């Protein structure tokens, strides 16, 4: 059943497929890793291909193929850091292929620190200049930044999150695919946001009408993981076949999140053999659900979504932790898990939401029968 589901998802997600390793290596001219900490850095990096740094004509970094991270074996492809307040120029980052392997989940391919001028990180105008990576650390990391647009990104088999938002606001994410394989939270998450706000995910006017705008198919962790993050709209997003969970809303600071026209299905671990040992994929957690609201997450809205769970695994929709871990290597047996995660807060509303049993959310309305997200 699981293999058949994955085959269907792979076909549906085709338009967002990541180029193979050879395509990454040959995509654009090569350049060393780029680090900019002042306006002068845009002139000295020899990495700007257009623009003069004004709002009307921002510097364009890329397209480039980065063949080694900043530290030689670890680090970043592009980092723009305004923590010392020496950057006032406007810029965009376009077509950055991180064509190397980096096993450190904390190493971002693209990293912005303290950037608040409107900035776009996107792929180039043709398929040969994708902003992409395969088997590196984190995809894009934003620390204390705002007014950032992420569009048309492809980060596959990452060791950290596809996108990591830390204390950032006014961020849009569209037309992108994220797959992360880390084994501890948040390293296996498609999109992870902590202490952030005013995020728009999958809401762009250029999003496709008949397929997901954001694809987090088969992440080891959660498709989208929000921790004390508020005022968020998630639209047209799939979190299918994730090995831990689909959508996780965590903490009392997680409120006014709207999840609409989205779906999570096929959640649960798989038993695989590694070094002749049978192990579960995903996180060791009691949150192996399609949708989990925990630790007081409150005042959130779910509209036209579909949350399905295979029989015998977790819950389609859950408040708090289950108190058990699904052991796929023991025949999907439920193993006790303590301490269980605390339940959701009040005021979470479900309208025209499709789900199957088992579910574990007090006062959950009956499942709808026809949801746009399905």
CATH architecture: 3 Solenoid
What portion of the residues fall into strands of 2 or more residues?
35-45%
The level-1 CATH class: Mainly Beta
- Write out the strand line-up for the largest beta sheet, numbering strands in chain order: 3-4-7-10-13-16-19-22-25-30-35
What is the domain tally? 1
What characterizes the major β-sheet?
11 strands, mixed
- DSSP E strands, number: 36
Mean pLDDT: 91
Q: Indicate the low-confidence ranges by residue numbers.
A: 1-23
Q: Report the principal-axis shape.
A: globular
The CATH homologous superfamily is called Single-stranded right-handed beta-helix, Pectin lyase-like
Task: State the separation between the terminal residues, measured CA to CA.
Answer: 18 Å
Alpha-beta content class: mainly beta
* Topology-level CATH name: Pectate Lyase C-like
Task: Output the number of helix runs.
Answer: 3
Helix content: under 10%
- How large, in whole angstroms, is the Cα Rg? 20 Å
Describe this structure in words.
- With 374 residues, the chain is mostly beta strands.
- It has a single domain, classed as Single-stranded right-handed beta-helix, Pectin lyase-like (Pectate Lyase C-like).
- The protein is 6% helix and 38% strand.
- The protein contains 3 helices and 36 strands.
- Strands 3-4-7-10-13-16-19-22-25-30-35 form an 11-stranded mixed sheet, with no helix packed on it. A 10-stranded parallel sheet has the order 2-6-9-12-15-18-21-24-29-32.
- A hairpin with a 2-residue loop joins strand 27 (271-274) and strand 28 (277-280).
- The protein is globular and about 60 Å long.
- 53% of the residues are buried.
């Amino acid at each position: 059943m699981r293999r058949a589901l994955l085959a269907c998802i792979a076909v549906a997600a085709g338009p967002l497929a990541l180029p193979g390793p050879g395509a990454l290596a040959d995509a654009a001219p090569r350049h060393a890793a780029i680090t900019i900490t002042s306006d002068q850095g845009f002139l000295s990096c020899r990495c700007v291909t257009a623009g003069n740094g004004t709002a009307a004509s921002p510097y364009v970094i890329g397209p480039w193929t980065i063949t080694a991270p900043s530290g030689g074996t670890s680090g970043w492809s592009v980092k723009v850091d305004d923590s010392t307040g020496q950057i006032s120029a406007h810029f965009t980052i376009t077509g950055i292929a991180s064509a190397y392997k980096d096993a450190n989940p904390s190493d971002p391919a693209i990293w912005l620190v303290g950037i608040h001028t409107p900035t776009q990180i996107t792929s180039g105008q043709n398929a040969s200049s994708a902003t992409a990576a395969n088997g590196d650390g984190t995809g894009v990391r934003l620390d204390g930044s705002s007014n950032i647009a992420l569009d048309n990104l492809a980060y596959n088999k990452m060791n950290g999150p596809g996108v990591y938002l830390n204390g950032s606001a006014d961020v849009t994410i569209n037309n992108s695919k994220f797959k992360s394989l880390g084994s501890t939270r948040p390293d296996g998450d498609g999109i992870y946001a902590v202490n952030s706000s005013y995020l728009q995910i999958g809401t762009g006017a250029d999003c496709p009408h008949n397929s997901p705008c954001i694809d987090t198919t088969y992440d080891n962790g959660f498709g989208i993981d929000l921790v004390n993050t508020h005022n968020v709209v998630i639209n047209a997003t799939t979190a299918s076949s994730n090995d831990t969970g689909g959508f996780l809303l965590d903490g009392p600071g997680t409120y006014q999140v709207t999840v609409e026209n989205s779906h999570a299905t096929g959640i649960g671990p798989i038993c695989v053999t590694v070094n002749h040992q049978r192990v579960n994929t995903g996180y060791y957690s009691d949150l192996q659900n399609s949708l989990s609201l925990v630790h007081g997450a409150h005042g959130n809205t779910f509209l036209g979504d579909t949350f399905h769970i295979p029989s015998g695994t977790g819950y389609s929709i859950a408040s708090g932790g289950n108190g058990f871990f699904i052991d796929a290597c023991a025949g999907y047996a439920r193993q006790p898990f303590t301490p269980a995660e605390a339940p959701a807060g009040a005021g979470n509303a479900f309208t025209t939401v499709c789900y199957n049993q088992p579910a574990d959310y007090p006062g959950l309305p009956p499942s709808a029968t026809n949801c746009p997200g399905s």
